[in-house]
Amino acid sequence: MQLINFCVLNTEIFRLFVILSFLRFGVFLQAFIFSKPIRYKTFSKLTFFSLILWLLMYLNKPKISLHFFDYIFYINYFSLNINLFLSVFFILWLLLIQMKQRLNVTFFEFWILILCCLLSFHLFTLSYDLRLLYLFIERQSITLYILASFNRTFQFATEAGLKYFIFGSFASCLLLFALSIIYMQFGITNLFELQMLCINIQSNNSFISFCFLLVLISIFFKLGAAPFHLWMLEVYEGVESGIRVLFTICTKIIFCIIFIKLIQIPIWLNVNAFFITSLISILIGTFAVFIQVRWKRFLIFASIVHIGWMLIPNIVLNINAQFSLIFYLVIYTLSSLSRFACLFGQNIFNGFNFKQKRYRIQFLNMRKLNPTLSIILRFTLFSFAGIPPFIGFLAKLFVLVNLLQNYFILYSLVIILLSLFSRFYYLYLIKLTTFQLTINLFTTTTIIREIAILLSIFSIFILEGFLYPNLYSNFIYLRLLYL
Residue 341 burial (CB < 10 Å; 0-12/13-18/19+)? Predict the structure, then answer.
């Protein structure tokens, strides 16, 4: 029997110990301290320091390949670096929601759910079995269901959490049904064994293709790709802004990891499904965003466009496709954090208290009210639009070059044409925040120092990515070689 080196799993074991310790500490405070409510600042600081400690532990982890229990868990260089990237993202996200003036969580369970969500992400990246992949997806989904309705003072939060649970449960049932059929057909669930078995299976087997198509449909539904995107409009509209950042980015990260894991099984990935879904997502997201006046719905449809771009590399099954997918994912994550930091940076005064801006018209006179924030928001929007010399241009360029190298010329021309249309609403927002001046109808708060520091870091990243692209491309490509 193979001896298991538990030293490699020290980070996961320590993370589980921290979660149990937080739970005991929170129950103790809630039971014995009756006069004071448990403020969220204590647990938020403890969570932040635990994330920093986990990050340091990941940096000191040995970069080796090791499998447990017959490849049910498989630790390699790629999984360790993905977990490192997830830890950095959660640290930045935690800084953003701590700086958000409206967030006032008085329940200690909120931070325990955040740590459980991160633990599910990390264990998911180490899993190479369909059963564990499904279990960790559901564990991550359950935490997101609760977080969606956690803020009881926020309007429509309970409704959004209930809708998210119903739609997510439907997709989970469909995924479980498809995985059960695959197990009934093959008798195995390990990805390495499926990879060896599918080499000898004819790719034109209609029954097997149907089972794999059901898996893709359930993943597309959970990801929010068109035409399975309607639930996002109902759910994201009622979710609190800080939690919506987690939903928008984390779901894309986890399902892109699924595609990278499953791309090693050629029969698994239906090229036509990715082809149609990516095209519909970009098409619907591009033209539906023109009629939106609320920031939330604008961000939802803009997110659907980026989902379509992330699905494009799966059409071509090679190492360059995986590189373009990871590169686009990293750029999208950091650019989204910059965009949400700009939205959190200013609030409006409605006569009684300060609230976050909800409509596009509320960003008029932004150049006069806060010139620095206006410049950083312009950099971020230019990056999302894919306009050089910003880093978003390189992310889309790598995707299109990979398509052209594999002779998807007509499809590339359609994507480029739709990308040109999508630039109009980003340029319209830049015009709205910069050149369209009016009477100052809204009193805004000044941006706090911590968000200003983060925005400066994000803006440097967006600009230097084009000046020194090898720093980012080589860093990602070297880690992709160790898949």
Answer: buried
